[in-house]
Amino acid sequence: MGSFCISKRSVFYSIFLWVFLAQIFHSASSSKLYVVYMGSRGNDEPDEILRQNHEMLTIIHKGSVEQAMESHVHSYRHGFRGFAAKLTEEQASRISKMAGVVSVFPNTKRSLHTTHSWDFMGLNDEETMEIPGYSTKNQVNVIIGFIDTGIWPESPSFSDADMPPVSVGWKGQCQSGEAFNASTCNRKVIGARYYYSGYAAEEDPEKSTVSFKSARDSSGHGSHTASIAAGRYVQNMNYRGLATGGARGGAPMARIAVYKSCWNSGCYDVDLLAAFDDAIRDGVHIVSLSLGPDAPQGDYFSDAISVGSFHAVSHGIVVVASVGNEGTAGSATNLAPWLITVAATSTDRDFTADIILGNRARVTGASLSPFQMNASARIIPASEAFAGYFTPYQSSYCLDSSLNRTKARGRVLVCQHSGSSTQSKLAKSVVVKEAGGLGMILIDESDKDVAIPFVIPAAIVGKILGSKILSYINHTRKPVSRILSAKTVLGSQPAPQIAAFSSKGPNELNPEILKPDVAAPGLNILAAWSPANAELNFKILSGTSMACPHVTGIVALIKAVHPSWSPSAIKSAIMTTATVLDKQHKPITADPQGRRGNAFDYGSGFINPTKVLNPGLVYEAKPADYKAFLCSIGYNERSLHLITRDNSTCDQSFATASDLNYPSIVVSNLKDTFSVIRTLTNVGSPRSIYKAVVFAPEGINVTVVPQRIVFDSYRQKINFTVNFKVAAPVIGYVFGSLSWRNKISWITSPLVVRGVHSRM
Ligand SMILES: *[C@@H]1O[C@H](CO)[C@@H](O)[C@H](O)[C@H]1NC(C)=O
Ligand SMILES: *[C@@H]1O[C@H](CO)[C@@H](O)[C@H](O)[C@H]1NC(C)=O
Ligand SMILES: *[C@@H]1O[C@H](CO)[C@@H](O)[C@H](O)[C@H]1NC(C)=O
Ligand SMILES: *[C@@H]1O[C@H](CO)[C@@H](O)[C@H](O)[C@H]1NC(C)=O
Ligand SMILES: *[C@@H]1O[C@H](CO)[C@@H](O)[C@H](O)[C@H]1NC(C)=O
Ligand SMILES: *[C@@H]1O[C@H](CO)[C@@H](O)[C@H](O)[C@H]1NC(C)=O
Ligand SMILES: *[C@@H]1O[C@H](CO)[C@@H](O)[C@H](O)[C@H]1NC(C)=O
Questions:
Q1: What's the CA gap between 126 and 416, in Å, rounded?
Q2: How does the average pLDDT of the chain come out, rounded?
């Protein structure tokens, strides 16, 4: 089939231009890096695949082996097949039509899913994820691959004290590079590789210097995510005295394999695919990716993460990914049903600074600033300190050099921040400091809870507190205020709450699959850092990047206890035991307005580590089910064969994508009636009985057949049908749930229905 991501018109133009230009210059100077994706490896030997890749390029280069070798950048030949090569648009178009090619797509950049990584500094913690009654000893058999910015292996979070040697099946490597050699790995960090060619092809080496051309982490993001999932216990972990105490990752004895594919400015598809290719061969059990495409996400087989994870899951590897930080409806990414996609919540630990106004009113804002004002100072809106040609409106956002030093000196400034701002909150504190300001109050309508390590006494407040402060200033002759240093506050409520930045459903690619799948802590998380960045060993960061490895750690716990469970069984266990209630047993709410959350915010809900090991029942999907899913969304047998290189047919296709045996149920177009089949597998006690309990979405009648299910044996599979019927006019999406319950287990799935008008 050969889907090719360039419009027909531009291909036409480029052929025309190319022929014309080729007569003037003899070079293919317009070459760009492309991924040529060729589906499953099948039974072909890696060397044979490499030979065939070279042969294809030789044909494209009109028989020149030399040019073919020159254009070849990387071959994928372990977990799947294909290659990366420098091609003109015309050559890319020709290759896309060659036998065996599934898709040809440009080397696109993906972003790490921290909100503004430069904004944060850190410390650690979270509630511990110790599960009573289960030993951690099997964790040493679980290997987690992190596709990220590398690792700082000397961090105490990655100590290998008391860890046994690695099992013989491991095929990974400790690749040498800058400040990294074969003995830098240990029994904790058992593998480390790096991928640079996709990055080097796109970025100007002059402008973007790379600090360590090796798996060593210069950014800190990779060390942070790895330690959240699998960091060892570290006493006295803290960030500048905040959040003091011991902390550890979810599965502290699990092994770490590093696949560094993300560099200063991001992660390129060519490198991400190379990382998946090696991770599949090396023998990791889990892949964790805290990064993703910009919304809206493209087709599955033109997206490196979807392609790589499809083959990883086909090899029995669980892949966990973050949903993204765009925060708006429909912005969810990493949408493939074979991924576990994670949204971010707050925890009950906040970092706050008190603001004392002249009228003795005390308000509290989010902050990680260690600085404090010892006396009150005049407070003014930043708009009053506008400088030169800046308007008061522009200055109210405390943009670079927008403040008049004469007016700002010795004052506390009230600055605005909007979600779409390109200037970071941290940078605004630098602007105020440089203008001579003593303190800053930042009014942020979208993200008030993300704490920032400001360079002066400062705090973030929401819109309501913000107008209270502005009104105090308006109604007072000499308004003053004082900002105290940040402190750690435990037990804050409501918690967990969905973070404002966490990307939300519906799934814009396949509305029948609910995304995100689950939610986990991702706001103000303390974990290991790279001392190469800001000389800090630990740092507090926010993002779905931090939520993802919490789930990765839980996957490792399940894998240690149930090594034979499939990726879909593990995913089901996490989803069906999640909760939609917060710690006070009230419905989980979403920042910033505190509205009641729904499945588009948190999928099945907030993870519940104490229940995941004993879900009772699971919804399983085999690789064949994902093939049937692909058929149901429009892939034909020919394209399916290219991807899988087996004799799969679309005979077993589903009527709609809603029929994939997914642990959540979405009916995306309910006109009158609709039925969905699901299959439960018993992983609890052999003889067990469950009853269906339905909370129907408003305006929809839901019946489950049968209402009662009796299992007689372990791993027995039983089908049931959910019938949906419109009872009252429904516009837009409505939410409900279905639980299979007995005295021991509740297996809950969200029900999401979108009503459409058929008559009238
Ligand atoms: C390998 O790197 C470590 C630091 O990670 C260093 O201490 C050691 O001397 C290096 N060994 C060799 C043989 O270069
Ligand atoms: C406040 O007082 C402390 C202790 O005397 C001092 O270290 C700090 O620099 C003072 N802060 C300011 C903003 O003057
Ligand atoms: C700053 O404000 C002072 C006092 O109002 C004024 O004299 C000066 O021209 C202003 N400077 C700029 C650059 O706007
Ligand atoms: C403060 O007063 C100005 C005019 O004096 C007005 O435009 C503004 O809306 C007031 N702001 C608040 C928060 O009261
Ligand atoms: C596909 O079917 C053909 C003919 O029935 C058979 O020769 C071939 O071995 C099959 N391939 C696979 C991968 O099963
Ligand atoms: C359960 O449903 C699947 C398809 O949804 C079907 O292939 C299978 O035969 C059914 N099993 C039983 C026991 O009805
Ligand atoms: C929906 O269910 C209720 C109660 O079970 C029933 O009375 C009603 O007739 C149903 N409506 C439709 C449209 O099926």
A1: 30
A2: 89
| Catalytic status, residue 757 | no
Has 103 been annotated as catalytic? no
- Looking at the CA of residue 677, tell me the nearest atom of ligand 6: 5
How many alpha carbons lie under 13 Å from residue 150 in its C-beta half-sphere?
A: 34
pLDDT at 485 over 60: yes
Task: Judge whether residue 123 has pLDDT over 60.
Answer: no
For 384, which DSSP code?
G
**Cβ proximity of 317 and 279 under 8 Å:** yes
Cα separation, 391 vs 368, whole angstroms:
30
What ligand is nearest to the CA atom of residue 152?
A: 1
The reported pLDDT for the residue numbered 134 is: 58
The radius of gyration of the chain from alpha carbons, rounded to an integer in Å, stands at: 27
Q: In the prediction, which pLDDT does 114 show?
A: 65
Q: Which two tokens stand for residue 656?
A: 């709609």
Report the amino acid identity of residue 88.
Answer: T
Tokens encoding 276 = 């998946």
Residue 115 is predicted with a pLDDT of 52
Would you list the DSSP string of 552-590?
HHHHHHHHHH-TT--HHHHHHHHHHT-BSB-TTSSB-EE
Task: Quick: pLDDT tens for 508-546.
Answer: 999 999 999 999 999 988 888 888 887 788 888 889 999
Q: Are 198 and 107 in contact (CB under 8 A)?
A: yes
Minimal CA–CA distance to 597: which of 668, 701, 504, 491?
A: 504
Q: Are 736 and 694 in contact (CB under 8 A)?
A: yes
**Do 490 and 434 meet the contact criterion of CB atoms below 8 Å apart?**
no
Please give, one letter per residue, the 3-state secondary structure of 468-499: HHHHHHHCCCCCEEEECCCEEEECCCCCCCEC
Residue with the bigger pLDDT between 447 and 377: it is 377
Query: Which region holds residue 46: left if phi is over 0, alpha if psi is between -120 and 50, else beta?
Result: alpha
Tokens of 714: 């372990």
For residue 707, the SS3 value is: coil
Ligand 3, atom 3, residue with closest C-alpha:
406
Give the β-pairing of 3-4 and 103-106: parallel
Question: What does residue 146 show for φ and ψ, rounded to 5 degrees?
Answer: -110, 115
> What's the one-letter identity of residue 86?
K
Cα–Cα distance between 490 and 669 in angstroms, integer? 44
Spatial CA neighbour of 147 closest among 303, 315, 320, 24: 320
Cβ atoms within 10 Å of 531's Cβ, excluding its own: 17
- Which pLDDT score, from 0 to 100, does residue 551 have? 95
Atom 1, ligand 6: which residue's CA is nearest? 719
517 contact partners, CB below 8 Å, separation of at least 6: 339, 340, 341, 342, 571, 574, 575, 603, 604, 663, 664
* C-beta 184 within 6 A of ligand 1: yes
Q: Cβ(177)–Cβ(213) under 8 Å?
A: yes
Ligand in nearest proximity to the CA of 433: 2
Tokens (6 digits) for 407: 């007016």
253, 139 contact by CB (below 8 A): yes
Q: Phi/psi at 314 (nearest 5 deg)?
A: -60, -25
Distance CA 587, CA 200 (A): 48
3-state helix, strand, coil in the chain (%, to 5): 25, 30, 50
State the CB neighbour count (10 A cutoff) for residue 354: 17
652: Cβ below 6 Å to ligand 6?
Answer: no
pTM score, two decimals? 0.89
pLDDT of residue 234: 84
Using the mean position of ligand 5's atoms as its centre, give its distance from the Cα of residue 648 in Å: 10
**Alpha carbon distance 535, 538 (integer Å):** 9
Q: Which of 23-32, 42-51, 227-236, 729-738 has the lowest mean pLDDT?
A: 23-32
